[in-house]
Amino acid sequence: MQLTPSLLPELISAISQVIDNNAEEVTLLDQAIGDGDHVINMQRGLQALNAQAAQLTELDWAAAWQKIGMTVMSTVGGASGSLYGTLFVSMSKAAREKTVDFSVFATAFGQGVESVKQRGKSDAGEKTMLDVLIPVANALTQAAADAVPLSEVFQTLPDVAIAGMESTRDMLATKGRASFLEERSRGCIDAGAKTAQLMICTIVALLAEQLKTE
Ligand code: ADP
Ligand code: MG
Question: Which domains does the chain show, CATH number per domain?
Fold first, then answer.
């Protein structure tokens, strides 16, 4: 399967759509334990990325992720803006001067998530987007090490993301705005974990479709 940045316009558009379709639900989650702006932050970034989508197709992955990271950092705002910006800039560094196959992608994503942990001074179990990103990164690294076929990876990854998102419900928030609520932060899924799951499931679905047509 040939994965090139020519896929980006379709990916960005599909991600925008899934965020729009779930805007009400995610906003309710962020209103419950945050300040309610998470969807608006994400939509602002996605709108900027949609406007750049054609330019992104002319780049290699390292340059495309760098550009995406810078755009996300300057448009998304909030904690999620700097964290997702960091993810993409770090992925770009890991992919520089490399041909991006599945194994390089898994390594780059793993390094990106590691940078998000450092940037957010956070780890798994703190009721954030990392409760989705970390298990997904681990599953990708394991699949690449075991040379698992892509069709199988695409089948199992959504469940990993969904389980991570669900796991935040009963967690105590110790990072971000939700941590101000202390014990009252329990009982509600984290908004950032929800959007991370939605985006990952959308990307996987689109790539799985692509794989079928080959
Ligand atoms: P803000 O909290 O600044 O209003 P957003 O609403 O856009 O920003 O994003 C909030 C999401 O960001 C949270 O739901 C959580 O998933 C994630 N988040 C916040 N702080 C951190 C952190 N320190 N580490 C990892 N993720 C975080
Ligand atoms: Mg917020």
Answer: 5-213 (1.25.40.340)
